[in-house]
Amino acid sequence: MRVNRLVLRNFRNYRLLEIDFKANINIFIGENAQGKTNILEAIYLGSVGKSHRTSEDEDLIGWDMANASVDVFFSRQGVDNKIRFHLIRGQKKEIILNEFTIKPREVIGSLNTVLFSPEDLWLIKGAPTLRRRFIDMEISQAVPAYYRHLLQYNRILHQRNNLLKKIRERKATRELLETWDDQLSITAAILVNKRVESLKKMGMLANLMHRRLTSSKENLTLVYYQAGADDAAAVINNEWFRKKIDSCRELDIGSGSTSIGPHRDDIILKVNGKDLRNYGSQGQQRTGILALKLAELEFLKSETGEYPVLLLDDVMSELDAQRREQLLLFIRDRIQTFITATDASLFPTVKIGQYYRVKEGTIVE
Questions:
Q1: Theoretical Cys-Cys bridge with 206: which of 14, 62, 295, 300, CB 3.0 to 4.6 Å?
Q2: What angle do CA 361, 6, 71 make, to 5 degrees?
Q3: Measuring CA to CA, which residue among 109, 150, 145, 121 is closest to residue 133?
Q4: Cβ-proximal residues to 138 (8 Å cutoff; 6+ apart), any chain
Q5: Which residues contact 169 (CB under 8 A, 6 or more apart)?
């Protein structure tokens, strides 16, 4: 999978940018706030249909501009494709894939990417929602049907929580929960079982990467934590969920929220059996995240047949020289990669790809 060309109009600080990518590794060098990350953001938009930096599409439109557009030309399995985003202030964005208008949820799975930014270092130390988002995004890119189930689950969850609040306020009856509980149980089982299956495969890949990074001195394991499961070996199906939801009904009504389901689960990373979040050093945590990101690449390749595009947003300065070298060795001649950095000295003196200088919304090779 490759991004061949990018055309931006009134996108962030770019009035007009047309750039072709022929190199496998593309490195954008420049000071902060010059437009480096905007390039990666545009490619990521073409991959998942939204920015990784803002939830508001209007933020992507250039200052004092009424509209903007992003065209990403890419190849998948040797077939050329084009996805276009037309952004208009006060309106929903228009998305066109190969001349056909599509919905935002249909973007996932067309152009696969893996994004690695400094914020990802919080995957280990941060809240469970970050780790749930991580696994959901990877599975969704590999299996777009999973994303549809995830959207369905979130809609059901929202409706059930609203009903719980009404029951608590005596504005609705408990019997109305039956339909929502049935739907929630079925969809929850689909999501959790796919997460467990995928995490097992990703865990094996992450451990291989981690052993390579640590010269086989440490083992990394990924453990899926199922909220409400007393037995880790329990069979998680819709009947299991339905029983758990029934047992928590009074608690849920009292709190006005659903206490059991994939929205409450977590992923635990362990090194040599110890929780990396609580007991890992900063160096171990960074190695764990790097191993996880490399495993993402291999996981998507195993599921789709080709490597995704890798986006490295200002992470080279966050890694020490050894980890930078390991990362570049892994991607070179294998994965198309886009890298942003403020310091060219972070890269080998031998040219490894195409370098670009970015300044005030202009790019020069």
A1: 295
A2: 110
A3: 150
A4: 198, 202, 296, 299, 300
A5: none
